[in-house]
Design a protein that fits this description.
By secondary structure, the chain is an alpha/beta fold. It contains four helices and six strands.
Length: 135
């Protein structure tokens, strides 16, 4: 049997399944990064605010003030007294570090202001206060 070399079949590029896969990956990564900051921190009851939005910068360090007034830096489980030094170290590594202050709704205002004072003395430029969206 001889082949006719004049008849050639062009390969088909199926782009629809590739678009489906890319959209699935996009949605997966969007959803997985939304909760990244909250899953790496100690759970506290955040106050509610109508204009709450998620911080999306790359280098975010959460600082948590618990109901008892304990201050937890990043993923620490125990209260820390060297908060200012840890803030300075984080700023030395990256000057554009964003510090997210997560104060419990029942925490004393004085404790939250104390942490803000520490952040100011350390020379931070980016501080956000974490809240939950009002329902």
């Amino acid at each position: 049997m001889r082949r006719d070399m004049r008849i050639t079949k062009e390969p088909l590029v199926m782009i629809i399944p590739m678009i489906d896969i890319m959209l699935f990956l996009l949605v997966f990564f969007m959803i997985s990064t939304i909760y990244m900051v909250q899953t790496n921190t100690v759970q506290v009851a955040l106050p509610q605010a109508a204009a709450a939005k998620m911080e999306t910068r790359p280098n975010i360090v959460p600082i948590t003030v618990t109901q008892r007034g304990d201050v937890l830096f990043d993923k620490d489980e125990l209260p820390n007294q060297e908060i200012e030094q840890k803030v300075r170290d984080a700023l030395a590594a990256d000057a554009d570090t964003v510090f997210v202050l997560r104060g419990d709704a029942q925490a004393d205002y004085e404790d939250v202001v104390h942490v803000l004072d520490i952040l100011k003395r350390a020379g931070t430029r980016h501080v956000s206060i974490a809240t939950e969206t009002k329902r």
